[in-house]
Amino acid sequence: MDYKTIDSATLKSWLEKDEAVLIDVREQGEYDEVNIPASTLVPLGKISIRALPSSDKKIVIHCLKGGRGQKACEALCAQSRELELYNLAGGIEAWIDAGLPVHRNT
User: Fold this and answer.
1) How high is the mean pLDDT in each 10-residue block of the chain (106 residues)?
2) What's the CA angle centered on 92, arms 82 and 21, to 5 degrees?
3) Is 24 helix (H, G, I), strand (E, B) or coil?
4) What are phi and psi of 25, to 5 degrees?
């Protein structure tokens, strides 16, 4: 299966229903500055099927704006076509623009 793109509202709904795991592929410093509370950090340079949390849920990838998320999805699809994989359109910036909650390190 190839990956699909979803919007922030869809992701919010899936997280509320516990239907998805969220993977942040930004770097540690970016994640520490601001992150989506339900996310797990797996930097793009370390992305692999083995690095993902074990789950039978949908896997949603996100980054800052969507570019690194796309690269991560492509890398994961090359490893397995069996994943139910999604990229968050617009990344965490779109999530924030939609007024959805984030954790900020102040």
Assistant:
1) 93 97 98 97 97 93 98 95 94 98 91
2) 35
3) strand
4) -105, 15
The predicted model scores a pTM of 0.95
Strands 34-35 and 20-24: unpaired
The helix/strand/coil state of 90 is: coil
Domains of the chain: 4-101 (3.40.250.10)
Three-class secondary structure of residue 51 per DSSP: helix
Q: Which amino acid is at 14?
A: W
Are 92 and 102 in contact by the 8 Å Cβ rule? The answer is yes
